[in-house]
Design goal:
Blueprint: H1 2-19, H2 22-42, H3 49-67, H4 73-93, H5 98-106, H6 109-112, H7 117-144, H8 150-185
Length: 190
């Protein structure tokens, strides 16, 4: 459910880009980000860096489009990918990887206190940062090589996004298997 709420704004934005204008698409993405923030607040959870940053990103691009409607569809997609890259990388540079907020709220306190927990979140956030970078590269390729089929950018986005989702689910399990046995063998502190 959490991954659905995290990705819902991007899914709606992407879907609407095929159905309506870029302006409507990014404002809808922003509205859904705000709705996910409201859901988190209603459940007593923290406001997430990714949700707040994405709401601002989508709204900012939407306002830019209202003032300067000359930005094309690929320009909007590239702007969104750059924004997500900046949010993701920025969260790591601020020493608060964006996945950490989600992870802390979904695991027991003992798990969150484990030594490798923060490192695992850096690795997962880095995977999402690389995914955003690859999506940016695909959009740049489409801008500079207009003969490329549009579906190629969609294929890259689909592949890297799904790979990042898979990695996000797989990596904690991998760490648990690899380091869980070691942690269980350690004596408890007095």
């Amino acid at each position: 459910m959490t991954i659905f709420l995290i990705l819902a704004p991007y899914g709606v934005y992407t879907f609407l880009m095929f159905m309506t204008s870029a302006t409507i698409s990014v404002f809808a993405g922003s509205a859904i980000c705000l709705a996910t923030i409201a859901i988190d607040v209603a459940r007593g959870r923290s406001v997430k860096i990714l949700a707040a940053g994405s709401a601002s990103l989508f709204a900012g691009i939407g306002l830019f489009l209202v003032l300067h409607p000359t930005l094309g569809t690929l320009g909007v997609k590239l702007s969104v990918d750059i924004g997500i890259f900046v949010i993701s990388l920025g969260s790591m540079l601020a020493r608060r990887p964006f996945t950490l907020q989600y992870a802390i709220e979904s695991v027991p306190a003992e798990t969150a206190a484990m030594p490798g927990f923060l490192t695992a979140n850096y690795v997962i956030t880095a995977a999402w940062t690389v995914a955003a970078l690859l999506m940016m590269a695909a959009n740049i390729a489409l801008l500079y090589f207009p003969g490329l089929p549009v579906w190629s950018g969609l294929a890259v986005a689909f592949a890297v996004r799904n790979s990042a989702i898979y990695f996000t689910k797989w990596y904690p399990e991998y760490r648990q298997i690899k380091y869980g046995a070691q942690a269980a063998a350690l004596p408890e502190a007095p």
